[in-house]
Amino acid sequence: MKAEKYLFTKWQFIFILLAGTVIRFLYGYWSKAWLAAPDQLAWILDLDEMLNNKTWHYVQLVHAPHEGGSLLVSLLSLLFRPFQSIIPALSWAALLIDTLSRWVQLKSAQKLFGNRTALIFGIWTILSVPLLIPWGTVNYGLHSLFSFVPFVFLYVITKYRQNKYLPVICGLFCGIAVSVSYDSLVLVMVSVFFILFVSETFTNRLAKLFAFAAAFMLAVLPHMLARIYFDAAFSLNGDGLLSIRGVALDNTFSPTHFNHLATVWFTSLPGSFLLTFPTFLPAEIICILVCLFVFTGTILYVRNKPVEKHLKTVSLSIVVLFVIVYALGSFYGKSYHQTGYVYYRHWCYIVPLLVLIMIKGFIHAGKFKWYIVGAWMVLCGIASLQYFRSFQKTDQPSYRQAGWILANKYSNDPGKLFQIHAMAEQAYQEELLVGFGWGLSARIFRKSSSEVSLNKLVDIIRSSPVNCHPAMIRGIYYSFTKGITPVLDQGLLIELTARFSENGKQNK
After folding, report:
1. Distance CA 19, CA 361 (A)
2. Helix, strand, coil percent values for the chain (each to nearest 5)
3. Other CB atoms closer than 10 Å to residue 279's CB: what's the count?
4. Which residue in 489, 481, 433, 485 sits closest to 461, CA to CA?
5. Cα–Cα distance for residue pair 46/62, rounded to 1 Å
6. Residue 407 confidence (pLDDT) above 60
7. 468 pLDDT higher than 90
């Protein structure tokens, strides 16, 4: 058979996985990028305090309430603590999950599109694109680590397409996936559209949708209950069960965001791929190049007759709906010339699947296929190598921002903050306290500037260790600085200054 020309052997598979892992490890080891990732610094301190005081708790194992998958990352990191003198234990855990994620992606690509497509896609994953490389050793959201989920979903919905229990299977899968990361909410929408598309009658559609909804709610219920009952630590404070980093998802699909539907395809999407490139090519040219490759690959994929219609429909629906939700959502980034991988972090969830679709399209481009595939590989490879050359080592850890994150998490349990504070190195404890003050002020005054809120913040400061007061008060003042968000009522600053001055006189 013709397909035998493109065997994807076990050793090729292993080499591709290990090569990608080595690339990501070396980037992390040399760049120390996790020092500029306040989420990871805060997460490490949280776990250190838990282990030191032997207070095992779900809240400390799950770094953020909307990322249930961080429980797995935390537990895996405990196995690597003996090796954290090389890279942090959380970075080891990220590297392992990243490797497993690429393994799942390759196996899924092989089963869905065959050996040739999987082999080319696997080669691409080694250097990948600059956006994806840092996440192999940096924890700043689970968007990249769990980018294998759309691949598994695509395989499941294809394999069980004729199964009468497909709505239940999809419901259970989506419920678990959303519990891990809210990026997977897009899979819920795809499932609903697919069920409506394949059902023959109105009654049949309703029955299948009900089965899907029941299975989904059953699977996601433990996660929702955890968010409700651990509210005291996670400080939801009315943000809503589906809030992300204090931003409620009810702002999604705002009418003011609809103009993003047109611009996202030519700005944030192509901008997210390469991040950096040789200076002789302007950012606009890079953007155009990526757009051409994306649109060419997608069109060729749509026109590819050997790919079954339902597979095309579902795979493209996942990508298109993700882009639409991103464009209409609260975390939309409109720029195409940013060089920071954190800015485009949400794209990590969908970029691997999009590239797989593009590659499947490229290899059916007739006599030009290898030229297009080669050009795409070279473009991505040069961009990643350029990114490695251009990165600068981080010397000063982002402990002020880490303090802000911890203060937001434990604003209803400030005593925990000072237990965590003791885990930080002496040189960074003051910056951490500044972050505590900044985070507490921003959290408490973000929605209310009432006398009750003011008293709450003052009481927290007064109940904290006296030697912590100066740094925390500096952090509170910092929260009112011009350019810092959220923008707080400047009238509060006058009242706070009077209260702290009075408190200082009493202490003397």
Report:
1. 25
2. 70, 0, 30
3. 8
4. 433
5. 10
6. yes
7. yes
Q: Are 146 and 384 in contact (CB under 8 A)?
A: no
CA 72 to CA 29: how far, in whole Å? 23
pTM: predicted TM-score of the whole model, two decimal places: 0.93
Residue 349: which of 102, 180, 148, 192 has the closest Cα? 148
- Going by C-alpha positions, the residue among 131, 317, 442, 324 that lies closest to residue 332 is 324
Which tokens is 7 given? 């065997």
- What are the start-end ranges of the H helices in 231-308? 231-234, 260-263, 268-274, 283-302
pLDDT per residue as tens digits for the range 292-330:
999 999 999 999 888 899 899 999 999 999 999 999 888
pLDDT, tens digit (0-9, with 9 covering 90-100), for 424-446: 999 999 999 999 999 999 999 98
Q: Is the dihedral of CA 153, 156, 157, 158 positive or negative?
A: positive
Quickly state the pLDDT bin for 91 (edges 50, 70, 90): very high
- Condensed to tens digits (0 to 9), the pLDDT of residues 232-276 reads 455 444 455 555 665 555 555 566 677 889 899 999 999 999 886
